[in-house]
Amino acid sequence: MAWGILLLAGVLEVGWAIGLKYTEGFTRPWPTAGTAAALVASMALLGVALRTLPLGTAYAVWTGIGTVGTAILGIVLFDEPASALRLVCVAMIVCGIVGLKLASPA
């Protein structure tokens, strides 16, 4: 259950990170409110997951999900470069997330 909560927290991290782009420097009220809500929910769920999961593992997985999701959506939504090196680096982050999950005692 904690891993599912952590996954949802990571997805919400992607949501608030992408939302930052749409706030236009916090000048747009609705995107700002959605971004803030996703941020609070993401942190709250991370806190719940930390009741069971080791801190180092959970935090690294949470930020990894956020990093990978934000990088991919940056490519898809904002036409950021999708060079081979960039995609290899994203794949290495995914491997690190999987490795941490496999090595976790919880």
TrEMBL record:
GO terms for molecular function: transmembrane transporter activity. It comes from Longimicrobium terrae. It is a multi-pass membrane protein. One of its GO terms (biological process) is xenobiotic detoxification by transmembrane export across the plasma membrane. InterPro entries: EmrE-like, Small_drug/metabolite_transptr, Small_multidrug_res. Belongs to the drug/metabolite transporter (DMT) superfamily. Small multidrug resistance (SMR) (TC 2.A.7.1) family. Gdx/SugE subfamily. Gene3D superfamilies: 1.10.3730.20. SUPFAM superfamilies: Multidrug resistance efflux transporter EmrE. Keywords: Cell membrane, Membrane, Transmembrane, Transmembrane helix, Transport. Signal peptide: none annotated. This is Guanidinium exporter. It comes from the Bacteria. One of its GO terms (cellular component) is plasma membrane. PANTHER family: GUANIDINIUM EXPORTER (PTHR30561:SF0), SMR FAMILY PROTON-DEPENDENT DRUG EFFLUX TRANSPORTER SUGE (PTHR30561). It holds the Pfam family Multi_Drug_Res. The keyword Transmembrane applies. It is found in: Cell membrane. The chain crosses the membrane at residues 33-50, 57-78, 84-103.
